[in-house]
Design a protein that fits this description.
single chain; nine-stranded mixed β-sheet; 18% strand; 382 residues; 9 strands; 42% helix; alpha/beta
Length: 382
C-alpha cells in the first residue's frame, strides 16, 4: 500500500463510523486493497532475519536517551531553549517573541547556534548584551545535541522548548508558569496555533483546562509545555535518530506525576513543507521510528519506569501504530520485518498486560497471535 491508498481507506472508515456502519465494509475494502500483497504476506521472517534485513537498509544508530546526571542550578524560574540552524529569515522574530513577553517570572533564553552556515551567528550577536539571553556556539552536531547542550547545566526550575522558526504568543510564560506554580505541576501543556509564511493561521490543537490530566492526553512533541527541570536530570535527546522527541512521552511524561492542560495558546508553529514530518516517506531513515521506540523501551528499564502508570500498554500500542504509519510505504517486506520485531517487543515488555480500551484490543490480539493481516488492518484504521 502507498500513502494515497491508506489515506483513502482511512477517510472511508471515518465516514462509515459517523454513519454508525460496522466494520464489514471497511474490512472488505481493506482486503480488496491489499489483495495484491497476499502471496508475500503469508510467510514471515524469523526475528534474526528481520533484524538483519532492516539493518541492511539502514543501521540502527543505537543511541540511548539515558544521560549522566545533569546539573540543575535553578537561578531563574524558566529556561527557554532554542536550537538554531539555518534560520536567518526567522531567528529575529523567534527571539523577539520571547524578549517581548510581559511576565512576573524570571527567565533565561538559552540559544544554541549549532554551527549554522548562514548569517545566524552574526544576527545573534545583537542579543549578546541582554542579560536574559545566553548564546552558545558549537560545531554542527544536530538538533538533539543542541538541545542537550542547553540542558547541561539546567538553569531554570522549569524548562520550555522553542524551535527557532516558531514564535511565542503574548503571555505564554505568564500563563504556563502561573499554573505550574499554583499546582506545583510537573508538566503544563497549552494550546498551539499554526501559521504559514504568507500569513495564514489555524488552530493546530486546543486543550481544555484539566488538572491531573491523563498522560495519554498530552501531545508527544517537546514544545508548548513547561517541564519541571528534575524530569531531565537523567534524560537527554538520543543522538542520530529522527523522531528523537519520542522521549517526551516514553521517558519524560512517563516519569511525571501531576500534569495540567490549559486552553491558552502558548505556541505559534510555522508550517514547513520541508520538515521531516512532511518529507520522510519512503526514505530508509524512516526506520528510525521503530529503532528509537526499541531503544527507549530499553531505556525505560534502566530508569525503572513503570509500564502501567508510567507508560501503559495503550501508549505502547499507539506508538507501534505510529511506527507502521511512518514506514509502511517502504514496502511490505519492511512491514513484515518491523511487525516480527514489534511482536518481540510486545512479548518482552507487555506480554503480561491486557488493554481495556476497545480500540486497541484487536491490535493486541494481532501482536499476541502474530497475525500480520490483522496488524496491518488495525494500524491502517486505528
Amino acid at each position: 500500500m502507498n500513502f494515497t491508498e491508506v489515506h483513502r481507506l482511512r477517510i472511508v472508515q471515518k465516514v462509515l463510523e459517523k454513519l454508525h456502519i460496522g466494520r464489514f465494509i471497511p474490512d472488505f475494502l481493506f482486503k480488496l486493497q491489499t489483495r495484491k500483497d497476499k502471496e508475500i504476506i503469508e510467510k514471515l521472517p524469523d526475528s534474526e532475519t528481520a533484524d538483519k534485513f532492516l539493518d541492511s537498509l539502514y543501521k540502527d544508530p543505537k543511541s540511548s536517551a539515558v544521560s549522566q546526571t545533569h546539573e540543575i542550578d535553578p537561578v531563574v524560574d524558566l529556561e527557554i531553549i532554542v536550537p538554531v540552524y539555518n534560520v536567518e529569515k526567522y531567528i529575529d522574530a523567534c527571539i523577539k517573541s520571547v524578549l517581548d513577553q510581559k511576565t512576573t517570572y524570571s527567565y533565561k533564553l538559552v540559544v544554541v547556534n549549532d554551527g549554522s552556515p548562514d548569517r545566524c551567528g552574526e544576527l545573534l550577536k545583537a542579543y549578546e548584551s541582554d542579560e536574559r539571553v545566553t548564546i552558545i556556539t558549537q560545531e554542527n552536531k544536530g538538533l538533539p545535541d543542541a538541545r542537550n547542550r542547553a540542558l547541561n547545566p539546567i538553569c531554570g526550575k522549569y524548562v520550555y522548548f522553542l524551535d527557532s522558526d516558531d514564535t511565542l504568543p503574548e503571555n505564554t510564560i505568564q500563563s504556563l508558569m502561573d499554573v505550574a506554580c499554583q499546582y506545583d505541576a510537573d508538566i503544563v501543556e497549552g494550546s498551539m496555533s499554526a501559521f504559514t509564511d504568507d500569513g495564514k493561521t489555524s488552530i493546530n490543537y486546543k486543550n481544555k483546562y484539566c488538572v491531573k490530566a491523563e498522560k495519554a492526553s498530552l501531545h508527544g512533541f517537546p514544545v508548548a509545555k513547561v517541564y519541571r527541570a528534575e524530569l531531565f536530570r537523567t534524560v537527554q535527546f538520543p543522538r542520530s535518530y529522527w523522531w528523537d522527541d519520542s522521549i517526551m512521552m516514553m521517558l519524560v511524561v512517563a516519569q511525571a506525576d501531576l500534569l495540567v492542560t490549559i486552553p491558552q495558546f502558548v505556541y505559534n508553529y510555522r508550517t514547513n513543507p520541508e520538515s521531516i514530518s512532511h518529507s520522510f516517506r519512503g526514505k530508509p531513515k524512516s526506520l528510525d521510528s521503530f529503532y528509537v521506540t526499541r531503544s527507549l523501551l530499553k531505556d525505560q528499564e534502566t530508569l525503572n519506569i513503570d509500564r502501567v502508570s508510567g507508560y501503559s500498554i495503550d501508549s505502547a500500542l499507539y506508538q507501534f501504530k505510529y511506527n507502521w504509519h511512518r514506514t509502511y510505504d517502504m514496502g511490505v517486506e519492511v512491514e513484515k520485518a518491523i511487525f516480527v520485531l514489534t511482536c518481540d517487543l510486545f512479548d518482552k515488555y507487555y506480554g503480561n498486560q491486557v488493554t481495556k480500551d476497545k480500540k486497541y484490543m484487536d491490535m493486541q490480539k494481532a501482536l499476541e497471535n502474530r497475525d500480520f493481516y490483522l496488524y496491518r488492518r488495525e494500524c491502517c484504521y486505528m
